[in-house]
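Transporter, monovalent cation:proton antiporter-2 (CPA2) family
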Amino acid sequence: MAAESAPPLFAEAIIFLSATVVAVPIAKRLGLGSVVGYLAAGAAIGPHGLQLLGSGEDVLHVAELGVVLLLFVIGLELDPQKLWRMKRDIFGLGTAQVMLTGFCLFGFAQLAGMGQSAALVAGFGLALSSTAFALQILQERGQLSSEYGQRAFGILLLQDIAIVPLLAMVAILAPGEGPSTTAEIVQEVLIVLSAVAAVILTGRYLISPVFLLLAATRAREVMLSAALLVALGSAGIMHTVGLSMALGAFLAGVLLAESSFRHTLEADIEPFRSLLMGLFFVAVGMSLDFSLVMANWAYIAGGVMVVMVVKGLFLWGLSRGTGSSNSDAMRIAVTLPQGGEFAFVLFTAAVVNSIFDYETANLLNAIVILTMLLTPVACLGLDVLATRAKARGVENPSIETFDEATPTVLVVGFGRFGMVVAQILTSEGLEITAIDNRPDRIAYARKQGYRVYYGDATRADVLEAAGAGDAALVAMCIENDKVMAQSIEMIREDFPKALIFCRATDRAHAMDLTKQGVDFQIRETFESSVVFGRAALEALGTPLDRIDQIEEDVRYRDEQRLAEQLSGGMYAGSDKLHRVTPRKTAEAANPDAAAE
């Protein structure tokens, strides 16, 4: 009996996974980051390397979904108010960077012998940085939420928007092509505005109620399907009208940033995003033609140097001129000097429209890929300089490491207990994030003005998305003892730096939590019972100093009893429940008077 043939793309998948499993850990061990590992893996297995796989163009079409999902996840982390606060960085700093860098590189391209139209496309194509590459670096370093990380993201977002007019520019510059009529332009604008409005209205008024309904079913796979549908559906709508798919997904993410399901959506999509992003960079690496690089090494080396230096200088100068510190400006300059994935799209469009030939596009693509490879080296070099400066005891404010802390408090469980805890923490001005798995409780809390998100406390990816990795303290306020125990074990393993404070449902649960080694635990009824007892004694005429004495004694005996129960079982120390608090003598109450 003949063996059945392997499924389609089975062998290619094995090769892809094997190459990444080898290359990525080596790159990370060298301090270059996972992206360089993916690029190196693609270059090794591609048609210009070991020839284990064919052209990377077919793979790239699928892998571009990774960029789409990346922008969706980034959108989830930015609510509309925060995006509005970034408008200066997006439309001011971002626009200035693209325009100044584009025209400067246009001049260099003309000096290199390109015609005016070809040089214009090449200059502005190389002015765009890689959203996927830069954000991957920022996320790996935990710097996306930092001040310089947000400014870098604003620049990247403007560049994603800029691809639309740049593609229009390519069509206008095409030989034999003239600008569209006024009626056609108006029609295109109306179609684009309609698509944007459709995404906004759907995200604003329809998606959250649908997710609320799906959450009540507790079917995780349905929630996952819905998350992918939202991300890819919004991208598809924008692609249909000629806009960037990544921009559509980003817009959908921003609209869901205030949704209760934001962190669960992010956690569900993250594995798909990571895998497709890896595939994207492998496909980019596969397109690197070594023979072309060797034949034109001087031209390409010069292009790489010009692109990285020009972009770096403009990024540094513009960042400094718009309020960034010297250290932040330097970090922006070494994070965004590379060419971007949208350059491949722009150069391909230029070939289709006969602005320049296929070989020129390949040379420009090689420059883009090599700038990507060298960017982590530039980041590493800045870290080395900072480390050496610190080793010499030099305080250099212009060079700092990428390590920054953003401590927060994560409240898990937002019932009556969790809400009071949150009120106390926010009264000090602390920033909290709260998650719960009951849609009705989330809806009630939001009506009270709290931002609570849907999430499962036993899923490390959900807690990571909610900020457990940066949290200084995790407040466990859930009622289910088994779920809490499972969550504590997972937090200890995955987020060891966070303090764990727990609500104990009863005395037995308090003993279990003590054995688990949590940093603090308290029985949910103990403090309220003490306050209740104090009020009763006061109503019966007991003096306040006697009430204080009784409370102090009761708390002391309770601690002693709990210690005995941990070693002797639940019924140990029962004799401590029935003692009458001894009255303090006058001498004990006033030792100075007794001494006289």
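thats it. The mean pLDDT is 78. Residues 408-577 form a domain with the Rossmann fold fold (CATH 3.40.50.720). bye
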